[in-house]
Amino acid sequence: MAKKSKIAKLKRQQETVAKYAEIRQELKNNGDYVGLSKLPRNASPTRLHNRDELDGRPHAYMRKFGMSRLNFRKLAHAGKIPGVKKASW
């Protein structure tokens, strides 16, 4: 389980990115890089770091499922993820 502050920080960053998305796109299309540099740093989507939606783990993130490999494995074995089953051959 990640610290609550890290999870809250990610949420704040996602809100900031969404807030400035249209403005960033406009400035980029106009080539106004000076105006772009005056926006907040956290308005850039490249500063986001993917975290597990269940417990906030930052490593081993599986983008397709939105969770870490540990939670994926636990839920897959329990049959809670549709379309995923344990391989056997």
Write the layout of secondary structure elements.
Blueprint: H1 4-30, H2 33-37, E1 61-62, E2 67-68, H3 69-78
Antiparallel strand pairs: 1-2
Describe the structure.
By secondary structure, this protein is mainly alpha-helical. The chain is 47% helix and 4% strand. The protein is elongated and about 55 Å long. The mean pLDDT is 92. Strand 1 and strand 2 (67-68) form a beta hairpin. The chain has three helices and two strands. The chain folds into two domains: 1-49, no CATH class; 50-83, no CATH class. The relative contact order is 0.14.
Q: Largest beta sheet: what is the strand line-up?
A: 1-2
- What is the succession of H and E elements? HHEEH
Amount of beta strand: under 5%
- Overall mean pLDDT score? 92
Radius of gyration: 18 Å
Our count of domains comes out at 2
Number of helices: 3
Task: Please give the share of residues in helix.
Answer: 40-55%
Number of strands: 2
Distance between the termini: 34 Å
The helix-and-strand class reads: mainly alpha
What kind of sheet is the major sheet?
A: 2 strands, antiparallel
Task: Tell me, briefly, the overall form.
Answer: elongated
Query: Low-confidence stretches at least 5 residues in length (pLDDT < 50)?
Result: none
Question: What's this, in brief?
Answer:
This protein has helices at residues 4-30, 33-37, 69-78, and strands at residues 61-62, 67-68.
